[in-house]
From TrEMBL:
Known EC number: 2.6.1.1
SUPFAM superfamilies assigned: PLP-dependent transferases, Winged helix' DNA-binding domain
Basic and acidic residues composition-biased segments: 100-116
Catalytic class of the enzyme: transferase
Family that this chain belongs to: In the C-terminal section; belongs to the class-I pyridoxal-phosphate-dependent aminotransferase family.
Residues covered by the HTH gntR-type domain: 20-88
Gene Ontology MF terms: DNA binding; DNA-binding transcription factor activity; L-aspartate:2-oxoglutarate aminotransferase activity; pyridoxal phosphate binding
Cited PROSITE patterns: HTH_GNTR
Name of the featured protein: Transcriptional regulator, GntR family domain / Aspartate aminotransferase
PANTHER family in the record: HTH-TYPE TRANSCRIPTIONAL REGULATORY PROTEIN GABR
InterPro entries recorded: Aminotransferase_I/II_large (IPR004839), HTH_trans_reg/aminotransferase (IPR051446), PyrdxlP-dep_Trfase (IPR015424), PyrdxlP-dep_Trfase_major (IPR015421), Tscrpt_reg_HTH_GntR (IPR000524), WH-like_DNA-bd_sf (IPR036388), WH_DNA-bd_sf (IPR036390)
Keywords: Aminotransferase, DNA-binding, Pyridoxal phosphate, Transcription, Transcription regulation, Transferase
Pfam families per the UniProt record, alphabetical: Aminotran_1_2, GntR
């Protein structure tokens, strides 16, 4: 386009009385004309004096726009020779055409795969388990955030802010906030028999991040990892997306039980929840714990202990950790405050063997640039002043009442015809359904009635041997909410049983 045509086009499109600054609007129009090819490479722009007169704006405005266009490579100017459109075309190297067999290998693996995603991304999204519904009956694994000790927390937090927390407003040092690491080391030693120093405690944002950094540092793609069968979908999905080979190991009443063929192929990592298996709820026996530790020592593999819901046992004290029995430095112990306080805190931790403490602390700092030291300082004081223990004792009583209310509803509707599994601890129980019942359909129909539950079969890698049932979380609902919700769920169950 010739320069005088550009002037005419700008007069048609440029509004001197627009809302944004004049130079921004003029810049946008000229750059658009160049990008759209309205002005070919080498075309001369009108002089700043002429264009300012045509558009009835200050010449300085046009000068500012031309300077910006020059800086960004749209135009080039020569002293006394005018301003010209730069050649912004780019010769692209022609992409090689892949052979037929290679194109087949790169093709989507099924209709559900997004062609824009990597294989790892597709694996991650292929079996989503999270829910946007995170409250009420009977969402499993959710505490009642209404029980959070707001006044105590606010009092500690206000005190921390008043003391001029400038050091707490920076990135955290490697491993996390030192006083919280020390408080956790002391606390875990007293209530869970975890043996550690503060240096072995590494702060994370939760179990998922703890697992992520563990597999990054200890596993390579293709390595074998044992997981429980059934297992928490979040752990399974995270490990699979990392390119690890998952081997599901069945659990029975005593916990994880690998067979002879499985033991003959040692894994790099074993992920286990010995204190409260999720979702079935059994506790790993002492004999199985000793077996697992001996096996890890013999084959030099690692154990990641997920201490899920260990604080909430009804009728007995919390069991000691597997880590506390480890004499060979093979166990990494992971926990969080998502169940004891609230998920929104996003505070978790790893207790790693002493030989790994420096590597893990540095890796978390490098990968995630941890902060939240103000939050961590409040939590450290909260633990040191014994508020955490008091809070857990109080909500444990509340959750025990809700558990009893749910069990009463099950017995009232079904007597002993449906088995209750894993109700001795945690924030949920499993209501077993008869063989042949499609628990996924039950879950779907219950949701249509406003009741949230989880189908037990979806927690199995091998669905052909999956046991049907429903996970019923009771911690996040009061007895007044539990009773009508289970009445509605019972009506749905009767359609299938």
């Amino acid at each position: 386009m010739e320069s005088f045509v550009l002037s005419e086009w700008l007069q048609q499109h440029f509004d001197p009385a627009g809302d944004s600054p004049a130079y921004q609007r003029l810049y946008a129009l000229i750059s658009r004309a160049i990008l759209e090819g309205r002005m070919a490479a080498g075309a001369r722009l009108p002089s700043t004096r002429d264009l300012a007169a045509d558009l009835r704006i200050a010449r300085n405005t046009v000068l500012q726009v031309y300077d910006q266009l020059t800086e960004e490579g749209y135009v080039h100017a020569g002293v006394g020779r005018g301003t010209y459109v730069q050649d912004i075309s780019q010769d692209l190297v022609e992409a090689p055409v892949a052979p037929e067999d290679a194109r087949e290998e790169q093709a989507p693996h099924g209709a559900g795969r997004d062609a824009h995603l990597s294989r790892r991304g597709s694996r991650l999204l292929a079996h989503l388990g999270f829910s946007n519904r995170q409250s009420g009956a009977f969402m499993p694994g959710i505490p009642d955030v209404r029980e959070f000790p707001l006044k105590t927390w606010a009092r500690i937090q206000n005190r921390q802010w008043r003391e001029g927390p400038w050091d707490l407003m920076r990135y955290a040092p490697a491993g996390g906030y030192g006083p919280l690491r020390q408080a956790l080391s002391d606390y875990l030693g007293s209530v869970r028999s975890v043996r550690s120093t503060a240096a072995q405690v590494v702060m994370t944002t939760g179990i998922h991040q703890a697992i992520d950094v563990t597999v990054r540092l200890l596993c390579d793609p293709g390595d074998t990892v044992w997981i429980e069968e059934p297992a928490y979908w979040g752990v399974r999905n995270l490990l699979a997306s990392a390119g690890l080979k998952l081997v599901p190991i069945r659990v029975d009443d005593e916990g994880l039980w690998p067979g002879e063929a499985e033991r003959a192929q040692p894994p790099r990592l074993i992920v286990v929840a010995p204190s409260h298996q999720y979702p079935l709820g059994m506790v790993m026996s002492l004999a199985r714990r000793r077996m697992l530790l001996d096996y890890a020592r013999q084959v030099s593999c690692w154990i990641l202990e997920d201490d899920y819901d260990s604080e909430f046992r009804y009728g007995s004290r919390p069991l000691p950790s597997l880590q506390g029995m480890d004499e060979d430095g093979r166990v990494l112990y992971a926990g969080s405050f998502s169940k004891t306080l609230c998920p929104g805190l996003r505070v978790g931790f790893l207790v790693v063997p002493e030989a790994l403490s420096g590597a893990f602390a540095n890796a978390v700092a490098e990968l995630y640039r941890e902060g939240n030291m103000m939050l961590h300082s409040v939590l450290a004081e909260f633990i040191r002043e014994d508020h955490l223990s008091s809070h857990i004792r109080r909500v444990r009583r509340r959750y025990a009442e809700r558990r009893a209310c749910l069990i009463d509803g099950i017995r009232r509707h079904f007597g002993d015809t449906l088995e209750i599994v894993g109700d001795a601890a945690g924030l949920h129980l499993v209501l077993a359904l008869p063989e042949g019942v499609d628990d996924v359909l039950v879950e779907r129909d219950a949701l249509q009635q406003g009741v949230v539950t989880r189908a037990l079969s979806t927690y199995y890698m091998d669905r052909t041997h999956a046991r049907p049932g429903l996970l019923l979380g009771y911690a996040g609902a009061t007895p007044e909410e539990i009773r009508p919700a289970f009445d509605a769920l019972a009506r749905v169950i009767r359609r299938y049983v």
